[in-house]
## 1
Amino acid sequence: MTLPVFVDTNVFVYAWDSSEAEKQSRATAWIRSLWDTEAGRTSHQVMNELYVTLTRKVRPAIDRATARRYVRTLEAWTPVLPSLDLAWEIEEGASLSFWDALIVAAARGTDAAHLLTEDLAHGHEIAGITIINPFEVDPAQWAREHP
């Protein structure tokens, strides 16, 4: 079993966004790998952001029924609600935006030690969570290094 990985909204969005084929391919590979190994983790915040982004921001937009089905599949990843107290502590201690602090706090609320996102610095550790940029590390390579 691969170590659990918390996935941020941007990775799911890139898997749907065909405007950047290379990022779409890499994001899809990561998500597929996490499904195959049952190592994916996420939060209700990510699911909410994903739905809004897929139905209102990507072009062409995804129809609501398809977006709802996709977002609902993420319930299998046992989404969490972050601790607000922890998010505020991370916001102050790591000088993050509140939204990024909520993501890190949610990752801490799972058994994940890694956060897959392009929004934070690859390799840095924040509140015990190591950041992985999905476009800098191949999922197969990562799985070999983190069995």
## 2
Amino acid sequence: MEDRRKETRKKLMAFTLVYDSNRGGILGYLGDLTLQGAMVIGEHSLEKDSRLILAIEFPGELDGIAAQRMTIPARVARCVPEDGSHSFMIGFEFTEVSPEHAKMIQALLDRYHFRHQTDTP
């Protein structure tokens, strides 16, 4: 499958729960995150192109952010079974990223993402 991301994924070091804000249930945990979207590891399949309001629970205090949770509209871009498990990798595209959302996402990335070294020849 072709990868059309404009931004490098950032895997998170902290266990970060993601909820379906409309239904109130847990969708899974955050696998990676960018300013454009997220990948959630969950136990249930979701229909591609369905729209949800995600609620992302912050794993701890973030510099300059008073909220403990971010709610953001998203579209399911893909949902595929994870190899060797009963989980699904659910790719979400954020559909409305406000300046406040961007600030929260950046603070979350700054505090909790794995720092990848780029492979250079």
